[in-house]
Design goal:
The protein is α+β, with helices and mostly antiparallel strands. It is 43% helix and 12% strand. The radius of gyration is 13 Å and the shape is globular.
């Protein structure tokens, strides 16, 4: 079965400026915010441009807090 990707932005990206610093976003939102691929996101994590993600609950999903992302992106510019 073929997966079709949607061209819509994750809701977290649409409302990023209104989200509290403690809100959590996943890698699809982070990729949309930065315009970078998943591989580049992980490169940035490994070299310290972006903070290390947290594991969400008992799943393997990685999440970042909005406040940490805002801070990291403001420093990277």
């Amino acid at each position: 079965m073929k997966t079709v990707k949607s061209n819509t932005l994750p809701r977290a990206v649409e409302n990023f400026n209104q989200l509290p610093d403690a809100a959590l976003i996943g890698s699809p939102a982070l990729m949309a915010l930065t315009g970078k691929s998943r591989a580049t996101i992980w490169r940035w994590v490994n070299i310290g441009i972006l903070p290390k993600p947290k594991k969400f609950s008992r799943t393997s999903q990685n999440v970042w807090t909005v406040g940490e992302v805002r801070h990291a992106l403001s420093q990277a510019v």
